[in-house]
Amino acid sequence: MMKTILVIEDEEFVRENILELLDAEGFEAFGAENGKIGFELAKVKVPDLILCDVMMPGLDGYGVLTALRQDSVLASIPFIFLTAKASKSDLRQGMELGADDYLTKPFTRAELLGAIGIRLKKQAAVEDRYHAELQQMKAKLNYLIHNDSLTNLPNRFSLREQFKQIQKTDSSPEQLVTVLSVGLDRFNQINTHLGNSIGDLLLKAVAERLSVCVGNQGIVARLNDDQFAVILATIKHRNEASQIAQDILTRLSETFELGGQEIFVTASLGIALCPRDGTEIEQLLNHAHIAMMKAKQQGGDHYEFYAAAYNIGSSDRLALQTSLRYALEREELEVYYQPQVNLKTGEIFGAEALVRWQHPERGLVLPSKFIPIAEETGLIVPIGEWVLYTACKQVKVWQNSGFPSLQIAVNLSSRQFGQLDLRHRLVQIIINTGIEPKYIELELTESMLVQNTEVAIRRLNALKALGVKIAIDDFGTGYSSLSYLQQFPFDVLKIDRCFIRNITENTSNAAITEAIIAMAKNLNLKLIAEGVETEEELSFVCQHQCDGMQGYLFSRPVPVQEFHQLLLTNKRLPLPTSHKLAE
C-alpha cells in the first residue's frame, strides 16, 4: 500500500523539490506552505509521515508538532523536522515535544530517504505489534466470554450457540433434546461458614464431577453462582434422562475433600424436554429451572420433570399478577434513583432509574418477583414507559434547580424495545418533559439484541438519531460476544457486578474485567462499573480507568427526596490517593 507523506515547508523551491523526489520514489506526497494549513491538511489526510520545517511564519514547526501530539488520531504519526539550525538546544526542544528525527538543510537525497525509511520501518513494527496484541486481546476476551472464568465450563452464551448446532444436526423425530438445571442445595451456607475460597473450590469440583457423569453424551455449562446446566443430545426415552439425573445426584452426594476438610453437599435437578416443553434454549432453561426449584422445595437431593412442576404457586402468582395490573392506576409504583459517580472527580453525574412496588398488603415487593410477571403479561410496556417518563420529568426538575448537566439512565425491557412505535413514544416523552435527549441514556441487556441483530441495529440507530445515548447493561454475564459489541452503536458499557464483586481476590474475574475494559476503550466506549461495594473494588476500577461507578459503597438506590439531599449536600466519593495523584 502506497505510503503518504505530508511536507510542510514555507520555501516553495525546497517544498517542490522534496515533493518531486518523493513522487519519483513512489510515495503519495502533498505539500503545505505554512504550519496552519499543514495541520489542517494532516487532519484531513492523516498521512503516514510528516516532514516539517522548523522556522515558519505564524504557526512554526514546534507549534505544529505540539498540536499533532495533542490530537488522539494524529499523535502517533512519525514526525521529522527540517531545519537550517543544528544547535543542541534546538534539537533538545524538538525531541522533548516528540519529534522522531531531524534533518539539517541542505540534506542529500540519500539522507532524506534514509530518515524516512527508518521512521516508516519503526512505525510499521509498532503497528504490527499493536495489531498482534489486539488480536491476542480479542482471542483472550472471546475465550473468557464463552467460558466460565472459575470452572472453565461453557457459559450461557456458549450453551446457546451449541444448542443451535444440536438443533441443526438433530432432525430425528424420536430424539429428545433434554435440558437439566442443576442447583446445589444450601450452597450459601458453605460460603457463609467456610468462606468464598472453599465455595469456589467446591464449584470447580462439582463442575468436574458433572463433566464425568455426562461424558460425551452432552454438554455441561455453568449458568451463575451455584447453578449449572446440562444438555443431553443423545436421549431417546424419558427414563434415560431420569437415569442420568439420578447418576448425577448420586455422584454429587459423595463427599468432597477440599482445603483439608470433608464437605457434603446435595443437589436439586429440574428436567425439560425439547420439543415437548419448548424449542428455544431460554424457554427450556426457564422450565428446567422451575422444575429444579420444585425439587428444592421438596427438600433437595431430588429431580423433577417440568410437567410435574408446571403450576408451582399458580394461585399466588395469579393474585400478584392481578394486583400488578392496578399498581400503576393506584400509584403503588415508585421510581428510586441510584447515583452514578464520576471516577475522576468523585461527583454525582447521573442516576439509574429503578422501579419499586409498595403493595398495600404485601409491603415492598422485590423487582425480582414482579418484573418477570410484568414481562410475561406485557404489563412491562406501560410500566417501563411510566418509569421513563417519570425519571425524565424528575431529572428535568433537578436540572432546573441547579444541576443542569445531570443525566438519567433508564432500562428498556425486551418488549419495550420490540415496540414498532418506540421512537415516537420517546419523542413524546422528550417533548412533554422538556429534557434534552443528550441527558437520556437507554440501557439494554445483551439478550435483547442477539435474536435479530440487523433489526436491533436499525432500531438503535433510529434512537441514537434523536440524540440519546445507548448503554449495554450487564455486559459479560453469559451472552457476550465481541462481534456483537463491535456491531452495535453503543456509547456506554456497564460492567456487571458479578465481575466487580471480590475482584481483588478473584484473578479470573480480574482477567476478564481487564480484557473487557481494554476492548471497550479500544472502541471508545464510556465505562461504568456496577455493584462497587468495597474500597478494594473501587481502587481496582479507578486503577483501570473506568469512567464511572454505581454501587452500595456510595449509595443504594434511594427515593426522590433522599437523592435530592445527596445533590444538595454535594456528596462526593472519596477516591483512592494513588488515583488522585495519577489525575
Summary of the model, kept short:
The chain has 22 helices and 21 strands. With 583 residues, the chain is of the alpha/beta class. It has three domains: 4-139, 3-Layer(aba) Sandwich (Rossmann fold); 156-312, Alpha-Beta Plaits (2-Layer Sandwich), CATH 3.30.70; 315-582, EAL domain (TIM Barrel).
Explained architecture:
The protein contains 22 helices and 21 strands. It starts with a strand and ends with a helix. The chain is globular and about 90 Å long. Helix 7 runs antiparallel to helix 8 (196-214). The protein folds into three domains: 4-139, Response regulator (Rossmann fold), CATH 3.40.50.2300; 156-312, Alpha-Beta Plaits (2-Layer Sandwich); 315-582, EAL domain (TIM Barrel, Alpha-Beta Barrel). The model has no long low-confidence stretch (mean pLDDT 86). The strands form four sheets. The protein has an eight-stranded mixed beta barrel, surrounded by four helices. Strands 2-1-3-4-5 form a five-stranded parallel β-sheet, with helices on both faces. Strands 7-8-6-11-12 form a five-stranded mixed β-sheet, sandwiched between helices. The chain has 583 residues and is an alpha/beta fold.
Q: Which topology of the largest domain does CATH recognise?
A: TIM Barrel
Overall pLDDT level: 86
Identify the CATH class of the largest domain: Alpha Beta
Largest beta-sheet characterization = 8 strands, mixed, barrel
Which features characterize this protein?
583 residues; Rossmann fold; Alpha-Beta Plaits; 5-stranded parallel beta sheet; 22 helices; 48% helix; globular
